[in-house]
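ok so i was messing around last nite and threw this chain in just to see what happens. nothing serious, just curious
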Amino acid sequence: MGTKTKKEPEAAAATATGPGAATQLTPGARRILDAASTLFYERGITAVGVDLIAKEAGTTKKTLYDRFGGKDALITAYLHERDLRWRAWLTSWVDTHAAGGGRSGAGEPLLATFDALAEWMRQHNPRGCGFVNAAAELPDPAHPARRVITEQKRWLRGYLYELSVAAGAHDPDELADGLALLHEGAVVLRGLSVVDDPVGAARALAAQTLERALTPPRAAGPPVADTPPHGR
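result:
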């Protein structure tokens, strides 16, 4: 008789990167992850249990555990897939909508990141940033999903840095830090409905920041000679 091979959870496939990563899931695992993603975002991670996820996915808890190993891995897979979608959305938007040609347009790709954010929030983020929401519900720094959250924020800052360098900013690190703060602040405030159109306000502030960051520093003029006192 042949030896049965134990089926490994599909959480590893769900958090894989590269072309076709999402298609590595079986149809059952795909249904589970889709149901979990919707429930986690709309109702909150801690409020949603595996029983509800299995019910919404039309499967059983046993299948959920067979495919993902547990809720923590499913949370991690949800955030990882959301991160991949956001990265693809943002970079595609910038490539499509920002020319960036000439000095006057050097900052267009950076401003386009705010336009992309506004549309993403309109279509996909009615309850605010999924990563910020998850971070508030997962205080344990050892939780595997925390790494996904941190890497998502670091990636955004790194992408803004690359665009800052390409734009010719005289201090791309400082510019990237400032724009990342505007991005994150706009996302949080939009979720709280505190400021009218926070992404638009952040974009306007970003434009002012870019004007300063892309203006070459003024060269120091020649030293001014001392003027002798009158009567001498």
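not much to say yet. The two ends are 115 Å apart (CA to CA).
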